[in-house]
Amino acid sequence: MSKVTQISHPLILHKLALIRDKNTGSKDFRELVGEVAMLMAYEVTRDMQLKTVEIDTPICKTKCKMLAGKKVAIVPILRAGLGMVDGMLKLIPAAKVGHIGMYRDEETLQPVEYFCKLPQDIHERDIIVTDPMLATGGSAVDAINALKKRGAKYIRLMCLIGSPEGVRAVQEAHPDVDIYLAQVDEKLNEKGYIVPGLGDAGDRLFGTK
Ligand code: URA
Q: For residue 174, with 0-12 CB atoms within 10 Å meaning exposed, 13-18 middle and 19 or more buried, which class applies?
């Protein structure tokens, strides 16, 4: 069974409260989502492999640790997942970015894939799929299916807020995919929104409605 990690650092919880506030406008919402994604990326990359290198300091030679160079791909689920990319690239600037476009059919609530463009060596990269909201889990499950169909092997999922239903759905469909969240909320409502949640993440990021 996949591991579920809630990253409840005080800075993340503080920023998440501001993000949830309906009076937070798009500019601040976008900045805050980016900041939380950057802070979360610190934890999501905690197990990155290191190698020992020799460095000349101004004083002497010394052995230091540097990243071993395993390549990373960030794959936002369009469109709300885009809001997390820039923050993550601040910490992992060498990562490549793939894109998967899914939308929710408003009647059936089922996800539909309409776009998929990935780095050509996706099968050997550590992949971090991003989507701020893990609601029914349908988009995440389908996005991960689309990645696996194209050869991806090392996948983790990073969201700001999840529902218990969404977490369960991903765990059942993809027991090999670890899930990282800032918080797991109470439930989904009848329209598929997370309660208390933050509303529609895409609309709030991009100022649409
Ligand atoms: N997508 C969102 O943006 N918000 C929700 O609450 C659920 C799905």
A: buried
- Token pair in block for residue 102: 């899914």
Cα-to-chain-centroid distance, residue 109: 21
Residue 159's nearest CA partner among 90, 70, 73, 77 is 77
Which residue, judged by its Cα, is nearest atom 2 of ligand 1? 200
Whole-angstrom distance, CA of residue 170 vs CA of residue 136: 9
Q: Is the CB of 74 under 6 A from ligand 1?
A: no
| Gap from CA of 150 to ligand 1 centroid (Å) | 27
pLDDT tens by residue, 5-58: 999 999 999 999 999 999 999 999 999 999 999 999 999 999 999 999 999 999
Q: What is the pTM of this model?
A: 0.94
Encoded tokens for 162: 């999840």
CA distance 188 to 130: 20
Show the 3-state SS of 26-66.
HHHHHHHHHHHHHHHHHHHCCCCCEEEEEEECCCCEEEEEE
In this predicted model, what pLDDT tens digit does every residue of 162-187 receive, in sequence order?
999 999 999 999 999 999 999 999 99
Three-state DSSP class for residue 103: strand
